[in-house]
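User: Study the chain.
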Amino acid sequence: KDESGKPVRNPSRPLVNINDLIPDFSLFDERRFYRPLGARIWKAVPLETYRGCPYTCSFCNSPAQVVIARENNQGYFLRRKSMSNLRREIEVMIERYHPEFFYINDDSFMARPKEEIAQFAEMYRDFKIPFWFQTRFEDVDAEKLEWLRDVGCYRISFGLEHGNEEYRREKLRRRMTNEFILRKSQIVAQVGIPYTLNVIVGMPYETRELLFDSVRLIREIGSFDSLSVNIFVPYHGTPLRDMAIKEGWLDPNRQTTSVIAESILEM
């Protein structure tokens, strides 16, 4: 702070080149790597293949990161690792930590050119360690899923979020139809990769009837084997938080909480 007590803010630095660095997890207790996934406990090491997200969902922090980077002349926040660097990172993780599983924590793993998924599958063929990722139904096709299944894809999480088409489009900025979701989910089931549906409840403007639209669509999809149901969290910098404040459902000074805690909206 300066003499008056005002915080002195450092200028924004250029974005990190994620191809230059390999994460170092040596400070973590080894027990931190063990995760329950698909009814088993695995020694699972996180793996980031790209940073950011090309989508603009109104409940998510990633769109704001893109805007902040652009406004501060830092460049484009969305950055993908080259396959050669990703191969080297995987080799280092195996050498250091001996993982049984890779937990790919990209916002939407399959939101990338198809040829890049082919390159990943070809590169990963040398390892074939089981892995998990999350993605969206827009990026599904049978060929891509088959490539990933054949090199070790153990399961996938798909962001559904809500079952009402109009609500998804108008409030969440997700423009998939229910018919499209049903068609894509059938492809996943036919390829044979187990998958989870991610759902959010308690969002601004949601009613009991809208919530049951989610229940009905989930039942119609049917081929998933687990659900991840989270309570809406109004993260700073997101349009849905701004909507909740505008409607008087959220104290602007209220701090956000865990996605499994009670809702902090007063609707």
